Amino acid sequence: MSGGSRGIGLAIAKAAAAQGANVAIAAKTAEPHPKLPGTVFTAADEITAAGAGKALGLVCDIREEAQVEEAIARTVEAFGGIDICINNASAISLTDTATTSMKRYDLMNEVNTRGTYLVSKAALPHLEASAEAHILNLSPPLDLSPKWFKNHVAYTIAKYGMSLCVLGMAEEFRDRRIAVNALWPLTAIDTAALRNVIGDDKMALMCRKPDIMADAALAIFKRDPVSCTGHFFIDEEVLREEGVSDFSIYQHAGSTTLMADFFVPDEVFERSPTRVVHGMA
Q: Is 0.90 topped by the overall pTM?
């Protein structure tokens, strides 16, 4: 997994370890961030403590090809192969064209789009050797409504680049029995980044917990990689297909209002029984 030292990535890693999976997280956070908790090493400790699986924490900047190749090699050396590649690492800046520096533009595209492409490419030979190979990108459906571009075109381009990787690689790798899918939340998700970068504690109460994304990801990994590929999954819809009907377990106590996430097409909300407010754009 790229990233994974906190938030949704860490939740997925802990859930997988609880079911016996060995997990390698390749993240840049070797030292604590002043605003965001956790490092790659504390995350590995949490993952190991979560279940029967083992965890490997790897300091890795996914913008650097040599570091990615080393992280892949160390993962294979530790665990014998790779069955699942999760492209979770992402950079965000919700700024308009005039106020987005080219340094920030490059960072988002290098981490989100290029990083996803690079990690998938490096993992490919090992995924080809697996009987249950999955690539999962934490990226949105390709909804080209202008509303998703007008306020932060640079971020949208970078995030949709991850989704374009799904669109192309799913077809490219179909005959190799490697599933390539995307997963995105219906509602905003409560993470340290949301509380400290996008919003605040009050906004977090309008979000679901990262566990919903973890449970949806694990459900996808259990599906046949031959027949289940090229999909842009929404977390709630995945779990409803699995028979889940009570989603209150993913909400904070006392929370009565949920906020819609970015990039979710209108038709998804129209068919969902979950009521949300639309405040993110």
A: yes
